[in-house]
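Work package 3, deliverable 3.1, input record:
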Amino acid sequence: MAWDGLKKFVFRRKRDLPEGLWMKCDDCDALIYKKAVEERVKTCPQCNFHFPMTGPERLQLLLDPGSFQERWDDLTPADPLSFVAVTAYKDKLAEAQLQTGLRDAAIVGTGTLHSRPLVFGVTDSRFIMGSMGSVVGEKITRAAELAAAEKLPLIIVSGSGGGARMYEGCLSLMQMAKTSAAIARLHDAGGFFISILTHPTMAGVMASFAALGDIVIAEPKALIGFTGPRVIEQTIKQELPKGFQRAEFMLEHGFVDLILERQRMRDELAKILNYLP
Amino acid sequence: MAVAYLHDFEKPIAELEDEIANLEKLASRSPADLSANIQSLRERSLALKREIYAKLTPWQRVQVARDPNRPLFTDYLNALVEDFVELHGDRAYGDDKAIVTGFGRIGQQKVMIVGHKRGKTTAERVQCNFGSPHPEGYRKALLKMQLAEKCHVPVVCFINTAGAYPGIGAEERGQAQAIARNLFEMSRLRTPIVCLVIGEGGSGGALGIGVGDRLAILENAYFSVISPEGCAAILWKDGGKAPQAAQVLKLAPKDLLALGIVDEIVPEPVGGAHHAPEAATQLVKAAILRMLEELVTVPIPELVERRYARHRRIGRFLEGEAAKVYFESTIAQASARAQAKAVKEAGKEPAAAATNAPREAITPASAGPAAGAPPLVAGSPPATAVTSAPAVHAAPVPAAPVAPAASALPPNPPTTPNPPASAPAGAEPSTATKENAGAVSPGPVQSVQRHA
Ligand SMILES: [Zn+2]
């Protein structure tokens, strides 16, 4: 029976769709039939909220079947600060690794989209909120360098509420500079970067590579911004306007090129890629 | 006139200084020669300061970095920059008072000065949001740095902020975008950039003017991915645990130097810059001039190349065989822990135990598939092709299997929705998908909650 308990331990995280036939939408609070959510590729049938997808799911959604070749999958986080607070970072990592089968939050590699080769990266929000530590920063940087060297377009799908990962201190903070510098190099080499923002993309990830796409695409209703809404609310002591920091708000304010629904994202990306040289 | 000793750890110094002051007063009225006594007390005070300041805890150092009497950017500006010409505005929205920019001269070296302004008076502090910039501040900084590039003048950035401003306007005008753009452009700016953290180096708000050829930090300043209070609020759910958070975040200059994040620590006078601002100014001036001297002779392409390399190498992780060994041992330990916990829980909830699920022990090799993800990552060799299933919704969602009872018609919804699965101990707080816990760090202290 160990496995059953373990499965529960492993699967019953709030990031996953909860067990049972019905679930409550995070956004509209409607009680929705889970199978319907799955059929709509993890979107709410009531309000079209796009629930977080895992990294592997995202690969399947966007790339040609069988085309993805993962790179640098051996990169492993190392707890450089020996961070121990209420729990140890080491344990947190192991737990996330066990839960997701990933070594850290980013998966990068090469693949094709409608037969067009490209460098592809995704952050998995199940892994410590998709936050960026040394491994994520290094993988994004290598992906950008690979795209520049191979003259391939770069697509990165970000989903990170955590921003820069606290447990690696300033090493995480500096990944913002490192990844941004790598994107700048890609840019100088004439490369193209399409940044796709999913719910939520905040803080240190949004204030670095995720904001630096030649084209920035968001999923509907995704929370996108720098400071989290609750901190802002506490600071200014007033309620935030409805839709604040959502994809539509970001589009309205000029920070997103377009909003794409998940179901048509692959085809729309192919259309865009056709305009690249 | 000496400034007040505000911190608990300075109490012994304050007492000794009081004693010296009293003795001096006495000496002025008394015929006896007390100068030898006074001199000896002064030496003791100096030794005491040196001893206390050498042993400051990270949290105490944060206190010193925030000391209201500590020299601010504008103090250094007045004391060491000549012929300053302030240049305002971002040519797009406005002039953010939290960042001051302009041409100036340090010694013989012409520079572009960029710095966080926190304000001296209450009115000033309110005007410049206590040194927390809005996007227009970062854009102003970038515009003036690009002007410096054009004029072949190096840039000197003075960093001292609790963080970028968290507000509606800041988000509407693209706080994240503005900071990201600065990181992008500063990394390739074709003129030397020297950055110096003089007080608080508060996460992305500090880094927004912190990408350069040199990143130096004053002895009693700090630089952190999140404020200690914010970190404490997230981890302990108690902002009062900030001292512990300061410890684990490794935000003190010596730690930052060891991690390769800062290039050097600029010494302060004994007892901190706030007790000897003139001496501190001279130390800062000497350090900046030396760094500039090292940089101005480097050909620009090489300078930019080195700057890229400087940031490129930051980060600590494992790769290859070392990674494999480490990963397998940690994952084995974790699965053992998880199993022990599961066994304990299974004992408590016998009903949850019976299904046809494979009774497979989680081992390093099976960790990936067992955890519900396709076997593309954990344990797979590099460059393995991933076979994707054609149908998107057939993706291996690690949720419970669809109930066999599900027919064409959805059953009636239960009267109460499933309670959300409770997070295991130690999980991030406030990770509800509609929120963002890393950046959302609930706590009472507004000015110190920001997180990159
Ligand atoms: Zn909904």
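Residues A 25, 27-28, 30, 44, 46-47, 49 surround zinc ion (CB under 6 Å).
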